């Protein structure tokens, strides 16, 4: 529609500009050599009207805008807050541990990510959790009837790929991590019969993995907040029958905290 208005305006301007020419054609040779003031004024007025009309429909910006993309335009689906080479995350982590009766242990989570491109990164994940648990056993257990006070520390050292999708200031991601888990525990068993307490202690390091994902919200170019990350974690530890977490364990980790980013890709 705007292009049609431009052509109509140009045509009217040319017509008005040429309109005085027949009157000038009937003039003498002297008048052709020196056009009448009225003819010059008409041409000047017509040219001024033509340029005003062209500017009013913004012909030049339309042509430039249609042929060139703005260099400052952001890529579709992108956000400048999402572009960084390295991410560091530090936050609170809660782990629901799956040995026998589930135990909730509190701790921290430290994570570093190298962003290979906007959607693919490589993660190094370290977390530590500490907790205690009171367990009541019956006569059917190998320890017999009584109570156990269990204290244990659990550490994960994991690494693996991370996939991220950027939606405005949000980042939705998933990762698959493998590595090792290290556990150390102590247990004091107090028999119901009143006999002397028994102390056990053990530690082990073995294979572990984590599968999960979460959502980050970027507050600025440098800072963001991990709204939530949930991971299914599995580890294989052993330590004998008296070890408080023998064999495999399916754990659930929930973490939230602060993100710092730097570097440009």
Can you describe what's shown?
It is built from five helices and eight strands, in the order αααααββββββββ. Strands 1-2-3-4-5-6-7-8 form an eight-stranded antiparallel barrel. The protein is an alpha+beta fold and 265 residues long. Helix 1 packs antiparallel against helix 4.
Brief sketch in words of this structure:
The chain is of the alpha+beta class.
Rg, alpha carbons = 39 Å
Strand-residue proportion: over 45%
Helix tally equals 5
| N-C termini distance | 43 Å
What's the arrangement of strands in the largest beta sheet? 1-2-3-4-5-6-7-8
In terms of topology, how is this protein built?
Layout: H1 2-18, H2 21-25, H3 29-33, H4 37-56, H5 59-67, E1 86-97, E2 103-115, E3 120-137, E4 146-167, E5 170-191, E6 198-218, E7 223-237, E8 247-262
Antiparallel strand pairs: 1-2, 1-8, 2-3, 3-4, 4-5, 5-6, 6-7, 7-8
Helix pairs in contact: 1-4
Task: Identify the notable features of this structure and list them briefly.
265 residues; alpha+beta; 8 strands
């Amino acid at each position: 529609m705007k292009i049609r208005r431009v052509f109509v305006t140009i045509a009217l301007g040319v017509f008005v500009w040429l309109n005085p020419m027949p009157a000038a054609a009937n003039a003498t040779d002297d008048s052709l050599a020196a056009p009448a003031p009225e003819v010059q004024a008409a041409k000047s007025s017509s040219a001024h009207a033509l340029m005003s009309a062209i500017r009013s429909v913004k012909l030049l910006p339309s042509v430039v805008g249609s042929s060139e993309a703005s260099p400052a335009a952001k890529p579709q689906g992108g956000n400048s807050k999402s572009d960084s080479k390295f991410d560091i995350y530090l936050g609170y982590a809660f782990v629901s541990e799956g040995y026998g009766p589930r135990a909730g242990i509190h701790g921290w989570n430290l994570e570093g990510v190298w962003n290979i491109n906007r959607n693919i990164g490589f993660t190094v994940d370290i977390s530590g959790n500490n907790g205690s648990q009171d367990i009541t056993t019956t006569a059917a257990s190998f320890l017999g009837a009584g109570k156990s006070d269990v204290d244990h520390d659990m550490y994960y050292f994991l690494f693996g790929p991370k996939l991220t999708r950027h939606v405005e200031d949000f980042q939705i991601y998933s990762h698959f991590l493998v590595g090792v888990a290290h556990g150390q525990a102590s247990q004091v068993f107090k028999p119901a019969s009143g006999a002397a307490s028994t102390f056990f202690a053990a530690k082990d390091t073995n294979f572990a993995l984590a599968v999960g994902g979460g959502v980050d919200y970027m507050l600025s170019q440098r800072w963001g907040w991990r709204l939530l990350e949930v991971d299914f974690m599995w580890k294989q530890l052993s330590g004998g029958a008296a070890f408080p977490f023998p064999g495999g364990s399916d754990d659930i980790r929930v973490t939230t905290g602060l993100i710092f980013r730097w570097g440009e890709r």
